[in-house]
Q: What sequence folds into this?
């Protein structure tokens, strides 16, 4: 348990999901500030009354990124509560315990047996970067190994600049923070993947991690520009290219969240619903699902 606690102390909710951003702690020399206009929507009922706001977040950004646009700050100031994927982002021990319980199954095959032979050298390099050795994964299910190794991505993005964590700190202690999903349900999505899909997750994680800073930089740039569709189509192999993974990690979760989100919108106080930007784009994105449920969802400028 101790080794997984050490890892999960730095594992934030959704950190690996969509390989949207690295959780690497690398620091770059200071750069001029870059002001972004990330995507945020106002949600209104059929009679035009504002019921809440929807904000696609990212879990790590370069240190020079400035994401608090006028539209974002308006929603932050007017919202009565915050709804995020996992509320206890700072409770590393609790998340580590959940991860260890779900991912630990003795007798797993060697990692080299779980990925194609052409990835063995990249896998060895990624393991070498990590605090672990190949033998440390003998009781770790494949999805767990993928999340662990994703932490070794080389990126100038910094988890200290995670938007969800910053929002939680902004709302507390004066306004309530609620969960849309929670750590058990979120990690349970990975745990329920068939082994074939877990191995695809591990393979894509290795490829993305070895691309280094470029993928994370592009993702951050697209997020700051409010390009949610571009985040779903990075032009390189990603988790979303696999239909089963996309359904399990994004589209299926969006549908599962809808009853929770609509219940919040139907009541007072008014929520700012802040979940990963990867859940915003496409025909199964949350803005589309909310419109189908009868809400008017308007992009704020």
A:
């Amino acid at each position: 348990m101790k080794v997984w606690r050490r890892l999960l102390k730095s594992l934030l909710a959704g950190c690996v999901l969509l390989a949207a951003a690295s959780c690497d702690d690398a620091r770059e020399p200071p750069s001029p500030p870059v002001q972004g206009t990330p995507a945020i929507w106002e949600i209104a009922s059929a009679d035009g009354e504002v019921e809440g706001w929807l904000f696609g977040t990212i879990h790590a950004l370069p240190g020079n990124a400035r994401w608090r646009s006028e539209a974002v700050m308006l929603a932050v100031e007017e919202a009565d509560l915050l709804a995020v994927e996992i509320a206890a982002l700072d409770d590393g021990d609790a998340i580590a315990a959940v991860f260890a319980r779900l991912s630990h199954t003795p007798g797993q095959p060697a990692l080299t047996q779980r990925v194609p032979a052409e990835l063995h050298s990249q896998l060895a390099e990624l393991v070498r970067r990590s605090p672990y050795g190949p033998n440390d994964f003998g009781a770790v299910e494949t999805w767990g190994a993928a999340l662990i190794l994703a932490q070794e991505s080389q990126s100038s993005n910094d988890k200290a600049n995670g938007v969800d964590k910053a929002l939680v700190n902004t709302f507390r202690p004066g306004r309530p923070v609620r969960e849309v999903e929670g750590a058990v349900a979120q990690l349970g999505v990975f745990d329920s993947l068939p082994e074939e899909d877990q191995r695809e997750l591990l393979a894509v994680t290795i490829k993305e991690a070895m691309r280094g800073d470029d993928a994370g930089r592009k993702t951050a740039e697209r997020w700051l520009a409010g390009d949610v569709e571009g985040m779903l189509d990075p032009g390189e192999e990603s988790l979303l290219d696999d239909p089963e993974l996309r359904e399990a990690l994004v589209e299926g979760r969006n549908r599962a969240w809808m009853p929770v989100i609509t219940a919040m919108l139907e009541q007072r106080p008014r929520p700012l619903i802040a979940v990963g930007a990867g859940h915003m784009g496409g025909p199964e994105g949350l803005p589309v699902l909310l419109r189908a449920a009868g809400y008017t969802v308007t992009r704020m400028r």
In short: Residues 1-29 have pLDDT under 50 and may be disordered.
